[in-house]
Amino acid sequence: xxAVVTKRETxxxxxxxxxxxxxxxxxxxxxxxxxxxxxxxxxxxxxxVKSQRSLVQLEPLGGGxxxxxxxxxxxxxxxxxxxxxxxxxxxxxxxxxxALDLHTQVDRAVKGALSALTSTFGEQEDARTWMQTGxxxxxxxxxxxxxxxxxxNAITTVLGAARRGVAL
Length: 168
Description:
The protein is mainly α. It contains 6 helices and 3 strands, in the order H-H-E-E-E-H-H-H-H. Helix 2 (34-53) packs across helix 3. The two termini are 34 Å apart.
């Protein structure tokens, strides 16, 4: 799997470069070093690959909306489409999940986190303070450590809920 390419590396063939200004802004708003941001995005990419393998699509035989589900919801021990051979779901055709562009997903997650931090806090210093303070929504972990684990979307979700007045 190719590594996430940042401004600190050269662009490799076939790898989309994430905008350096987005990486710098994420670093400034989170208090993470450039290396920590790079590691967090690498962790996010690994999480996306693992998650994508476990998803399958259920296509209705009579037409209609296709559903995306985890393979394990169809067979508890199933980890991917290939482990569902022989599984039949009445009225549906089980299909593998189409490949999604990881670099687009990472880029969207970075932009979403930046947007959530900016719209919630406005000031970089306020965002950085929140990112470095333990939070009950993350079982006492700091949002920065959650980000470091590659859970960028968790930050976006918690901040979105907070802006709507929902305590998590």
